[in-house]
Structure formats: structure tokens, C-alpha cells
Amino acid sequence: MMRTKTDIARNWLPRYTGTPLSQFGDYILLTNFNDYVERFADKFKCNLNGEGYPMQAATNNDGLTIINFGMGSANAATIMDLLTAVDPKGVLFLGKCGGLKRSTELGYFILPIAAIRGEGTSNDYALPEVPALPSFKLHKFVSQKIVDRDLEYRTGVIYTTNRRLWEWDDDFKEYLKETNAIGIDMETATLFTVGFVNQIPRGALLLVSDVPMIPEGIKTEESDKEVTKKFVSLHLEIGVEAMTEIEKNGEQIKHFTYE
After folding, report:
1. CA quadruple 61, 145, 72, 195: dihedral positive or negative?
2. For all residues of the chain together, what is the average pLDDT?
3. Crossing angle for the helix pair 73-82 and 188-197, nearest 10 degrees?
4. Considering only CA atoms, which of 165, 203, 209 is closest in space to residue 187?
5. Sequence ranges of the domains in the chain
6. Any residues with CB less than 8 A from the CB of 53 and at least 6 apart, and which?
7. pLDDT tens-digit readout, 75-94
8. Residue 105: what pLDDT?
9. Phi, psi (5° rounding) for residue 132?
10. Which CATH code for domain 5-248?
11. What is the predicted pLDDT for the residue at 2?
């Protein structure tokens, strides 16, 4: 009998990913794209599980797992609930977002300091007044990896929405300007909120894949292929390096002490 949330999650995580619980690492990378999982599996010569399942996953010999959980806030909430089955020590979302500021050009990375809960899904988990925040120490490791490569990155607030097709809506664009958000996506606020409720250390490194506030900046099949070609390998490498270093150092993310 499955009586508790943990009981259900332990049964459902393998059912969604085609991966036994024993094969999940302590540290998790999340993505919306199977391409990231394929690149990871190819890089580390490890099995790619979950073909034909709702989600795909792979784990390398260092105990780092990557999962493609799909697109949207409902899927984001689902994976953060299912991960309670393995109680990860850290989860980093490698997502793409639309840049809403002139300073967010294609290929730039954003480390969100917070996210606006415009998606609604997170309201099933926490009061609307509860902010959607990452775990500071996890972002500290990620930012250092970016700096080590002499790359620029941006910080700011991400607006998370359930609307996938909004780029035509001038009223919504004006609303976005009023929020002063630096970028827009469909998952970050949900991942932060549900991660907080489930006591999972979490963060996000977002790649600016389009600039949808102007017609010529709206994502197309061609433009997305170009962004993937130029920036996805680097995006994945930074995430892998940051999470691997955290694991090797054995540092606690939940409890941070200033030195």
C-alpha cells in the first residue's frame, strides 16, 4: 500500500523515468530538452534511460544525474515532488529563457535571484506571498564556474508563466515591463517553490535563447538551432562542473556559513 507521499514518489519516479531508484545520484541536473541528456550520456559514456517514457535520465560514474522532465510548470512541480523519493543534496535547472532586457542578449547566462510566480501551479504548494528563491550556496558555485571561464552573466528576477504563446500580446508585454523581470520562462518559479516546500536545495542557470519583446527576436526553429549549436555545450559543461565540484567537496548546500 502506498500511504505516504514518499511511498508514491518512490514508486512513480522509476515509472516516469525508466530508471531504478538506486541509479539516481545525490546531485541532479534538470533540463527541458532530451538533447542535453543525450549529450551528457555521450560525454560520460553512460546509459540513457527512459526512451519511450515521459522523462529521460542518465547518471555518470561521479554520481551526477541529469533528467529531462519536459516543458512547463506542471512538469516542473511533478519532478520536484518525485525527487523526494531520492532526497537529492542539490538540484540545478539548466533551462532556456527569453531575455526581457537590452542587457540580456542571445547566449547570455542568467542566475536568477528570485522568480515571480505567474504560473499559478506553485499556488498549490505555498501561499502567494511566499517568494520563489534559489539556494544561495548552489548559485555561488555556479557563478564561480562562469567567472573562471571569463564569461559574463546576469542576475535578476525571472517571470514564470504558464502561457507558452504570448509574444503577440502587447498588453502582456507591457505588464512584463512593469514587473522589471530580466527574463521569462515556464519553470523556474515552480522549481524554486516546490523545491523549498520539499526541502530540496535548488538553483537555476538559464540560457537566453530568444529576445521575444521584439518581433525579430521571437524564437523560431532556425534561431533555436543556432542557439543550440553555439551555446548548449557550454551551458551543460558549466552545470556539470559546478555540481561535480560541490559533490567532491562534500559541502552542505542547505547550511551556509560566511567565512
Report:
1. positive
2. 93
3. 30
4. 203
5. 5-248
6. 15, 16, 17, 18
7. 999 999 999 999 999 999 99
8. 85
9. -95, 110
10. 3.40.50.1580
11. 77
